[in-house]
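Protocol step 4 of 6.
Sequence for RWD domain-containing protein (Cryomyces antarcticus) entered exactly as in the expression construct, tag removed. Do not edit the line below.
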Amino acid sequence: MNTALTDEFTSINSIYDATTLELVSTEPTICALQLPSQFTISIRLEFPLDYPDAPPSVLGTQNAGDEGTKKGAGKRLADLARDVLARVYRPGEPCIFDLLGEVGEELQRVEEAKHDEQAAGQEDNPDYADGLQEGTVANHDRALASSDDLPHLTPPWTVSPTVTEKRSMFIAHVAPVTSPAQAKSYIAHLLVTDKRVAKATHNISAWRIHGTDDTVYQDCDDDGETAAGGRVLHLMQLMDVWDVVVVVTRWYGGV
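Step 5 output, structure tokens:
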């Protein structure tokens, strides 16, 4: 494997499970990729010698699942991975992290659509409302509603491309804010709704806000990465950036 692929192995398997990306053969370089929530199905990826200057190929399934797996699920998953790979790959940029994230979101949307269809069918049943149990969707909604930190709408994040440095992977989120309370609520929403971000080694944040009556609010949080929040805030000061919150997420790659 070349250095870029070796670094991606280390990063992916430190962010996700240790067996998410596994080497199957070296000539050619073929790997098995475990996709999010698909515990019994993995796909085969072939990497060219000049990856990431050239894209990997989805060969099919490495493991088609157990007896409980629905017929054709492996093929559908491989087709989905091909479609997503065609969207996320950029020449010269590692793409497996983005592939995992996009496929995970697609699978989540499918599950949510199924859930909505089931819920619509249940609502036609007059006994449904009376039979709703604690710990179901109602309980989930109550848990979210009980937190004053979470905004009612998804924050308008702008998300950076993935940056890899010394095997660590970084992604930044930035959104406009008008108060420290709003900045804190946006950060809380990100950590609750994005499992990848919540599992990261560090989520470094900073914000600068012009308040009323010439009041200025500036603050930062290292989240365990010494002086990192202060450096993000200092960069925002140098750039004269105002009325935004920035969250820099780091997945430690072992170096």
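Step 6, annotate. Residues 1 and 16 are 20 Å apart (CA to CA).
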